[in-house]
Amino acid sequence: RRNGVDAGRRSGAMSAPEAEKAGGGAEAGEGAAPAAGGSGEARATPATFLRTVVGRPAIVKLNSGVEYRGVLACLDGFMNIAMEQTEEYVDGQLKTKYGDCFIRGNNVKYISAAPR
Questions:
Q1: What percent of the chain shows pLDDT beyond 70?
Q2: Low pLDDT (below 70) residues in the chain
Q3: Are 74 and 82 in contact (CB under 8 A)?
Q4: Rounded to whole angstroms, how far apart are CA atoms 113 and 52?
Q5: What is the DSSP string of 47-115?
Q6: Residue 9 needs a FRET pair 20 to 30 A away by CA distance; which of 21, 62, 90, 115 works?
């Protein structure tokens, strides 16, 4: 680590969101793995999934096991999440309803699209 930058980052490596902004995302035929059906289409990436979930109902599970269900308003490259119409579930039981909530990214275990 030098000047707050990890060694891997000094070599010019980019995170997925940075690469996508720079236009360096893998397209079909450029190293992207084909879909399981062998149709030649590229698999959906995590970034693609997150773009489709923003503005829709989602479930966010934390490392502690607590789940938040609501509308995913936005998120950033650190996986910090803003949600609206949020409900907190502990052990499957509804505990609290929040209007808006903010979840720090290092607590997130996974994000799932909520069934409609």
A1: 64
A2: 1-42
A3: yes
A4: 9
A5: HHHHHHHTTSEEEEEETTS-EEEEEEEEE-TT--EEEEEEEEEETTEEEEEEEEEEE-GGGEEEEEEPP
A6: 62
What single letter denotes the amino acid at residue 40?
A: G
The distance in angstroms from the start CA to the end CA of the chain is: 45
Around 102, how many Cα atoms within 13 Å sit in the side-chain half-sphere? 4
DSSP structure class, residue 13: -
pLDDT tens readout for residues 104-115: 999 999 999 988
pTM, to two decimals:
0.63
List C-alpha distances in Å: 47 to 11, 44, 58, 109: 23, 8, 15, 16
Contacts for 63 with CB less than 8 Å, ≥ 6 apart:
107, 108, 109
